[in-house]
Amino acid sequence: MRYALLLLVLALPLQADQLIEQQLPDFYQQLLPAQHYPLSWQPARFNDIQHWRAQGRAALREALLWPDEPVDFAASLLKTEVRDGYSAQLWSVQLTKQSRVQLMLLQPDVAKPVPALLLLHDHGARFDIGKEKWLKPFAGDPRQASAQQWADKYFSGNFVGDALARQGYLVVAADTFGWSERGPLEFKAQQALAANMFMLGRSLAGMAAYEDIRLLQFIKQLPQADSTRLAVLGFSMGAFRAWQLAALTDDIKAGVAIAWLNSYRHLITPGNNILKGQSAFYMLHPGLAAKLDIADIASLAAPKAMLFINGGQDNLMPKAGVELAYQQLAKVWQAHGAAEQLTTSLYPQYGHEFNAEQQQQVFSWLATQLAGGARD
């Protein structure tokens, strides 16, 4: 049988590749838990929701394969630009022993500490821009055209971070490894990096997650940020990172995740990006999918305030998987006695985007959750 398959691969490489691509999802599906994930919230198996959360969070943190190695941020200001009601600042910050990064900070023109937002950018197969997907680049920056193209494609032409700064929030965005000033690191290089990290007992997804933790810690210690009113907002891959960060730390008061939530069973299907390796490694933690489904991980953020937004026409996030995930989230927030802290929205007419209508929903929701911290 194996010899026959080998002959098929040698004789008809294209057809064999297609055959294997069709067969592999079935193989993967058989490896998933048949009914309930071992660490999924189920009242019949876990009597105490807090104990369940502690177990799940420990499993997630362990899966990062990244030790807690705090270093001095040694932050230095590189550039400042005055804008309408706020200033844009470029900082150089030491996040980990391996990573010194540049981040943009938008500072409102007020003297008192204000609520702060960490914005986490998407993947999008566009590597010349990262933080610039959220924030308007500095005058003269050669990435201005690329950033505007991205805003036009996904954000109704808006730079969401600048809109939030005008509302009175302190806003921070940085490049994930591989994007903008930390790139470009394209598909084959991403897969090579991920493979070698596994060899060394680390993971690319864990590196990205730990850097997000450190970014939040950097914001928390800023004197101009109200550390009791920190929030995270992410789109696409950034949404994955947003609910992941909310699950990993209690420093966040509120989180918003747009266009990345589903179930493994619905994603492990022919043609889905999660099966292609390469970029998927930013979101794959070794062994975690055998213990927790995607919604289980996201629900570790409970009982804090969370807003999830998805589009019914999003080809990357099957609608059935989104609805199943929303059901599981609701069970966990209810178990915490905090059902009112969870908001889930499925826009049936929209695809993979964060458009002006959805932005208005997020702006209103954040103003409520952060208790009047933003100006009207």
From TrEMBL:
<keyword id="KW-0378">Hydrolase</keyword>
<dbReference type="GO" id="GO:0016787">
    <property type="term" value="F:hydrolase activity"/>
</dbReference>
<dbReference type="Pfam" id="PF12715">
    <property type="entry name" value="Abhydrolase_7"/>
</dbReference>
<dbReference type="InterPro" id="IPR025890">
    <property type="entry name" value="Abhydrolase_bac"/>
</dbReference>
<dbReference type="InterPro" id="IPR050261">
    <property type="entry name" value="FrsA_esterase"/>
</dbReference>
<protein>
    <submittedName>
        <fullName>Alpha/beta hydrolase family protein</fullName>
    </submittedName>
</protein>
<dbReference type="InterPro" id="IPR029058">
    <property type="entry name" value="AB_hydrolase_fold"/>
</dbReference>
<feature type="signal peptide">
    <location>
        <begin position="1"/>
        <end position="16"/>
    </location>
</feature>
<keyword id="KW-0732">Signal</keyword>
